[in-house]
UniProtKB/TrEMBL annotation:
It comes from Saxophila tyrrhenica. The keyword Membrane applies. This is Uncharacterized protein. Residues 1-20 are annotated as: Disordered. Keywords: Membrane, Transmembrane, Transmembrane helix. It comes from the Eukaryota. The chain crosses the membrane at residues 42-66, 113-139, 151-170.
Length: 211
């Protein structure tokens, strides 16, 4: 087994021949709707960080005031807007590179798709965690505050995001990561658990998946 050549020595993964691997370079770049990668990524993180800060602010306002108070509405509404903006921005990019529309030989689109799937986890997991903590506190205090809307709102936010995380991890991250590693021999998302948490196992290699 130790005599078996490794992907780094072969120049390709175990799942394809050198000829098949060489054909990847002949696949023309596909133009997609949207902003350039760096601009698009910067906008995503602006939406994401804004949504988290506003979600924390909404949780504080919901605890001290009621969900009908203007301070809660003024923080919860833009929180949802920013969160959905980041989610839809990423989802639209993924749909343009999904398996039902792309050429499976187009490694550029497949790498980008995997990167976007991992990035989606980075949005949904913190959002779900903030919502879960807020829900627990609000539910424990529900008899004192008599505000069903407060704990129900954060419960729904938690459910949507945690279900999205599970589906994204199962349908996109594990599937695409395993396939790319089998065909290319390596992937910045080789550690499945870290990828599900939105963390690349090889950050230095993630750059080629972003572009």
């Amino acid at each position: 087994m130790s005599d078996h050549p490794q992907p780094a020595q072969m120049g390709h993964g175990y799942g394809e021949t050198p000829e098949q691997h060489a054909r990847h370079s002949s696949i023309p770049l596909t133009k997609h709707f949207g902003l350039p990668p760096y601009t698009e990524a910067a906008l995503f993180y602006i939406w994401a960080f804004s949504s988290w800060l506003l979600e924390i602010a909404a949780s504080v306002c919901g605890s001290y005031f009621s969900t009908g108070d203007y301070r809660f509405i003024a923080t919860a509404t833009p929180c949802m807007f920013c969160s959905w903006a980041a989610w839809l921005q990423t989802a639209i990019q993924m749909m343009q590179r999904a398996s039902w529309v792309r050429d499976e030989s187009n490694l550029v689109d497949r790498r980008r798709y995997l990167y976007l799937a991992v990035r989606l986890q980075r949005l949904m997991l913190p959002t779900a965690l903030i919502a879960l903590v807020t829900f627990i506190v609000a539910y424990v205090r529900r008899m004192d505050t008599d505000d069903v809307g407060n704990w129900l709102f954060f419960l729904l936010v938690f459910i949507f995001n945690i279900v999205g995380c599970v589906m994204n991890a199962y349908n996109n991250i594990t599937w695409e990561s395993d396939r790319l590693e089998y065909e290319e021999g390596s992937s910045p998302y080789g550690n499945t658990l870290l990828s599900i948490l939105g963390i690349p196992s090889e950050p230095s290699k993630e750059q080629e998946y972003k572009e």
